[in-house]
Amino acid sequence: MLIWWVPYSYRSRYLRQWNRFFVFTARTILNINVDVVGRENMPNYACVIMCKHQSEWEAFYLQALFWPLCTILKNELLRIPFFGWALALMEPIAIDRTSPKEALKQVQNQGLKKLRQGRSVLIFPEGTRMPLGKSGRYARSGATLAIAATVPILPIAHNAGICWPNGNQKKQAGTISFVIGEPIVATGQSARELTKDVEDWIETHSNELLGSSSQQATNRAPSM
Q1: Which has the closest alpha carbon to 23: 33, 15, 14, 11?
Q2: What integer pLDDT is reported at residue 204 of this predicted model?
Q3: pLDDT at residue 219, rounded to an integer
Q4: Does the residue 7 lie in any domain?
Q5: How many domains does the chain have?
Q6: Residue 139 is part of which domain span?
């Protein structure tokens, strides 16, 4: 918070180190590693990033992996003493989830500005963390923003919930599989159709990762 006066381009680089420290600590103390597939699909320009949401882990990891990045999050987080105040210095798009229409308008207006500034916009389309194997309704705000800004959507699937289960204080050592897909470009689709394409990709790959992890766990289990 002491560097609030530093321009964003420098301030964000410094604050990003906290996310890297989080990932480093999870790896060294909890033995939670990550295997990233598809780094070559990461564009060198601003885009809309849509990612499966299972835990707090991926929120930190994405901030460490992508820069510059603007995250869409619930505005209650900014009210948390110290943590929320520091989070505000990353200039996120903080929405009020009790007012969907206003939130959509806010995402469009602020999201366009961020993209024009060269910052990718991260959205968890389900709006909240989902238990392993479950999916929520995908909001169309990410697709609407991508169409308005004429930028692609970068879909991401993972199985972080295996090591960092939602709502459970106990963490599980292991390797998180993180898959970055090829950018999905809107070619005349509506926001609904584009959202469906992204949802199909994310859910298909997330379920494949979950099935693969379950099979590996079965193979490691001692025979009776």
Answers
A1: 33
A2: 96
A3: 42
A4: no
A5: 1
A6: 31-216
Alpha-carbon distance of 20 to 16, in angstroms, equals 7
pLDDT tens profile 51-82? 999 999 999 999 999 999 999 998 898 888 88
CATH number for position 118: 3.40.1130.10
| Among 82-86, 104-108, 176-180, 214-218, the range of highest mean pLDDT | 176-180
Tell me which DSSP letter residue 158 carries: E
Contact (Cβ atoms closer than 8 angstroms) between residue 142 and residue 50: yes
What is the enclosing helix (H) or strand (E) of 212?
Answer: helix 191-220
Residues 6+ apart with CB under 8 A from 153: 47, 48, 49, 50, 142, 143, 146, 183, 184, 185, 186, 194, 198
CA–CA dist 138, 125 (Å, integer): 5
For residue 169, is it within any domain? yes
Question: Going by C-beta distance under 8 Å and a sequence separation of 6 or more, which residues neighbour residue 194?
Answer: 143, 146, 147, 153, 184, 186
- Integer Cα distance of 37 and 110 in angstroms: 30
Q: What is the 8-class DSSP label of residue 184?
A: B
160 part of a folded domain: yes
Residue 116 in domain: yes
What are the structure tokens assigned to 113, written together?
A: 């500005």
DSSP 8-state assignment for residue 223: P
Tens digits of per-residue pLDDT, 106-157? 999 999 999 999 999 999 999 889 988 899 999 999 999 999 999 999 999 9
